[in-house]
Structures are given as C-alpha cells and as structure tokens.
Specification:
By secondary structure, this protein is an all-alpha fold. The protein has helices spanning 3-25, 33-38, 44-78, 90-102, 113-134, 138-161, 165-175, 187-203, 205-211, 215-220, 225-247, 253-265, 270-289, 296-319. The longest helix is centred in the N-terminal third of the chain and has 35 residues, at 44-78. It is globular and about 60 Å long.
C-alpha cells in the first residue's frame, strides 16, 4: 500500500472516530465519556444514548457509506463525473411513495413513511432493472432514469396541489432529510440491506476497474459486461433506496464524495476508491449530523455544491 493511501485511510478513520464521539456526546443533555460506557437502558442518559444518539450515529454512517459507494459506482458505470445515485429516479420513487402516503392517504404498512419510501424506491429499481435487461447501452439507461424522475416529480407536484396544509408540512419536513428517523429497532434491517448492496458492488469490482475505458475494452479483458452492469445497478439501487427510505432524499453525498476520494487517493483502482469513498461519505455525514437543528439537505449541499462547481470549472479548463 502506498504511503499516500495509508495516510489517507488513517486520517479518515481518525475523523470518523472523532465525529462519532461528538455525535454521541453532543446535545441538549450532556453525556460524559464515563457515562457513555456505563449508561444502561433504564435511566434517562441511557435512553437518550440508545434510543436517539446511537441510531442517529448509525443512520449517518450507513447512509454516508451507501450513497458514496452508489455514487462512485454509477459515475464509473456511466463514465460521467456528475452522475449520482439519484440519477436513476430512485429518490423520486421514494418521494412518490411518501407523497402517496402523506398527501393521498395510501398506506403501505405499519411503518408509515419508511415503508412508503421503500416501496416507491424499490418500485423504480424494478423498472430500471427491467429496462437494463432489454438495452445493452448505459446511455439509454441514464436517459430512462432521468425521464422516470421527471415523470414522478410531475405526479408528486399534482398531489401537492391538492393536499392540505398539515400533510404538506409533514411531506416538506421529510424532504429536508434527517438522520433522526432511524429507530433502534430498525438498525439491524438497515445494516443488513447496506451489507447486501455493498456485496453486490464488490462482486463487480473487476468490471468497475475495466469499464472506465469502455465496454469494448472490458469485453477484451474477458469481463462479462452484462453481468457486471446488472450487479452494479442492483447494488447501487439497493444502497440508494435504503438510504433514502431511512434518511429522506439526501442530495449531493453521492455526487460530491467520489470526487473527494479521487482528490485524496489519486487513483482509479476501485480496490482503494470503494473503501475510501465509503469512509469519506461516513465522515461527511457524521460531520453533518452535528448540526442537529439545521435541515440535513441544506448542510450537505453547502459542502456538495462547491465540490461539484469545482469539478465543472476544472473540467472546462482541461478542455480549453
């Protein structure tokens, strides 16, 4: 392992530990370092720790890893530095599920908003996978994903027009994103889905390393392009759908974090970039979770927008 790579991982790991500690101890009720390990589930400090702060920590870590890995994989697959996990319409699908639940009164189960978002997100995933099986072209798939997103956004706009003020307020609050929706009982499911999505992406590691130079180059190396693309699309859809269902339509993590990983490690090897992006995403989301009183999407966009603008300006200078 190169010195730069090792130092990069050490710095990210140290930041992850620091922000995790601050997430667990910072808030309206002070929990000291000693209480952090002695707290049980019966006293007030213990309940705050296990029912609020630890689930919030896990939501930040898991969503950061999921969105970052999904963003990196899709940018590699489409060979587009501005592609992200929401380009396939998965976020819009989750928004439609929540809109149907909150604005139109449809129910998708006892979990309410969470199950509604999951149904919408995985419904769009199923459509994307069906399209992927018919077309052997990543560009067509990208266009189809964008069209699905526009179509669903139009449906949500129609629901918003005919909704009452209270339902609209709850929907807008969900759309701002939050790490505080995950409960202690949902952590196991979130972990399981994230691990499943990561395994699918890792199984396509050879394809990701080869496809950066095109599908024909990957085929020349003996890589099964159709299988690799299917694994990447299924894995990224699972990761993005679960993060959106639990934390809302969190934007910019999937777009900005892979560029941060490229800048830090300066390699195109996904054996380094995948864990590097996962760590960068976890650190960014842990840092954002410290601003508990601010909308999550606003905090993350303040970091993501400058990065994307920098990529556009840098790309323009290179072309000129």
């Amino acid at each position: 392992m190169k010195l730069r790579t090792g130092v990069g991982f050490l710095v990210l790991a140290a930041l992850a530990v620091l922000f995790s500690y601050l997430t667990l101890t910072t808030g309206s009720v002070e929990i000291s370092w000693s209480n952090l390990f002695s707290a049980d589930k019966t006293d007030m400090a213990g309940r705050i720790f296990w029912e609020i702060r630890f689930p919030r920590l896990m939501a930040a870590v898991l969503s950061g890893i999921s969105l970052a890995v999904a963003g990196l994989s899709l940018q590699t697959l489409f060979r587009n530095p501005l592609a992200g996990p929401f380009v396939l319409g998965i976020s819009s699908g989750a928004s439609l599920g929540v809109a149907l639940s909150l604005l139109a009164g449809f129910s998708f189960g006892h979990l309410g908003v969470l199950s509604s978002a999951a149904v919408g997100a995985f419904g769009v995933t199923a459509i994307v996978m069906a399209v992927s099986s018919r077309f052997n072209n990543s560009t067509i798939l990208l266009v189809v994903g964008l069209l699905i997103g526009y179509f669903i956004d139009a449906l949500v706009s129609l629901l918003i027009v005919h909704s009452d003020a209270e339902s609209l307020r709850v929907y807008v609050s969900w759309g701002m994103g939050s790490f505080g929706r995950l409960t202690s009982g949902g952590i196991g499911f979130f972990v399981s889905v994230t691990v499943a999505g990561l395994l699918l992406v890792v199984c396509a590691m050879r394809y990701l390393n080869a496809v950066r130079l095109g599908d024909d180059f990957a085929r020349g190396l003996g890589v099964n392009v159709r299988l690799g693309r299917t694994l990447v699309l299924l894995g990224t859809s699972v990761l993005a759908a679960s993060a959106t269902a639990f934390c809302g339509p969190v934007a910019f993590v999937g777009i900005a974090v892979p560029h941060l990983a490229y800048m830090l490690f300066r390699t195109s090897n996904h054996r380094v970039l995948l864990p590097g992006s996962a760590l960068c995403g976890a650190v960014l989301c842990l840092a954002a979770s410290l601003f508990q009183t601010l909308p999550l999407n606003a905090v993350l966009s303040l970091v993501g927008v400058p990065v994307v603008l920098w990529v556009i300006v840098r790309g323009g200078r290179s072309r000129s």
